[in-house]
Structure formats: structure tokens, C-alpha cells
Amino acid sequence: MANTEDQPSRLINPATLASLVLLGSLVLAALWMRSGLIGGEQWPIRWLDVEGELQRTSTSQIRAAAAVSAGRGFFAVDLARVRADIEALPWVASVEVSRHWPDALSIRVVEHRPVARWNDSRLFSHRGEVFEAVGSDGMQGLARLVGPENRREEVLETWLKMQRELSAVGLDIRRLAVDERGAWRLELSNGVELILGREQVDQRLARFISVHDLLRGDPRRAQRIDMRYTNGLAVRWAGNEPSEEDYRG
Question: What residues have CB less than 8 Å from 221, skipping those under 6 apart?
């Protein structure tokens, strides 16, 4: 009987074979790239398909931002770089980029939708993100939110909550501000300045809403309403001297 114990194995381990195939593929890909076999001249990108609801960014701006990276060709293009170049445009919130065989890139863009101003120089988007946009100074109808940077999210959440409550009596917030001490002050769409202070802010706003119809029915026009009272409020009527206020319990 033949002795096979000392015979060398003629089979290649599957793991070794897989490693060799992978290494060979990487070497071949590197050689292709070096020799230009998968570059822009052999496999050019001819189409940049742009999708998305665009209002403040043009398709030509998006294609121009993608053009340099796309010039590397279908296989060599860096999709992450294309995405970063487009997201650098002022109004762009996010971008998805994919290859479409044989010569196209599909680019899907989501724009920032501004909902409010933040400290006058920047904007809040519908996603709660803060961004800067050239040419936004003339935009109308945006509430102005003001406060310390470390309270930015709190100010946005407070504005959304207060706006929902005030809309029940037909009011909008033009400006909402909180200072370093945590005192809240609003300017409403009817021109009234509403002072809520630092404590019991929710309760004070609810108390204002409860007497809004009474104040609106007064023939005089309220200019400022101070809610920093335990059971009442103070009203400054338009045309009065700064020191003259009426108190209501």
C-alpha cells in the first residue's frame, strides 16, 4: 500500500486563492489607472443628471461644481468629492451622487428651506440647521430669532412651540429674543411687544392668550404688554408717555 503521508498537497487553500485573486485585481486596477485605461478619455462622463426641487440653486451651478471631478471619467471619479463640491454651494443642504452606466452621473440635491433668521446674519433651515446664504437679506416673512449661540436649539424649539400657541388667536411672532440671563421678549405681528421674563414663561404666555380678546376689544392700541406679574399684567398704550402704564388684574 502506497504511503501518502509525506506527499505535498497539490491543492491551494481557498483562503489563499481568494487573497491572490484580490491582490491580482488590485494590481490590475492600479495598472489600468496608471496607464489611463479607465480615465476620462477612455470612459468619459457625458451626462450630469440633476434632480430635486430647486428654487435658489440652478442646475448650471450644480453641474459646474461637479464638472472638475467628473472629468476624471466614469470609473475614476470620486463620488464623495463630487458630493462635497456641490454641498459647498450656499443653499445646498445635502446631495446624493451615483454612477449610471455607461456615461452619466445622477445627482439628487436637497436645498435648505429657510424658516427663520438667526441673530440676523444666518438662517434656520427646515431641518433645524443654521446656514449662511448670500442674497438672503431681502427675504421677507421670516421671523427673527435672537439669543446666545449655546441656546440656539432651545430658541428654535421655543419659537415653534409659541408660534403654534399664538396662531390659535391669529398672531404670529415677528421677533423672539432671549438674553444672557434667560429673559424672553417677543414682537408680535400686531406690533405689540410682549415681555415674558425668565420664570413661568409658558404660564405667562398662556395667560396672555387668555386675555387677548379682551385687549383686542379695547379702543386703545396696546404697544407693550408686561406679563411679569403674579396675577396680572401691565399694558402700555400707544401714544402714552413711557412712564404711563395701566395695570389689569
Answer: 191, 237, 238
Number of structural domains the chain divides into: 2
Amino acid in position 179: D
Q: Contact 149/159 with Cβ under 8 angstroms?
A: no
Q: How many CA atoms lie within 13 A of 163 on its CB side?
A: 18
- The Cβ of residue 167 has, within 10 Å, a number of other Cβ atoms equal to 11
Angle between the N-to-C axes of helices 79-87 and 59-70, in degrees from 0 to 180, rounded to the nearest 10: 150
pTM for this structure? 0.75
pLDDT along the chain (249 residues), means of 10: 49 65 63 53 90 95 96 93 96 96 96 93 92 77 95 97 97 97 97 96 96 91 94 87 49
Do the beta carbons of residue 231 and residue 220 sit within 8 Å? no
* 70 and 140 in a common domain: no
Is 169 within the bounds of a domain?
yes
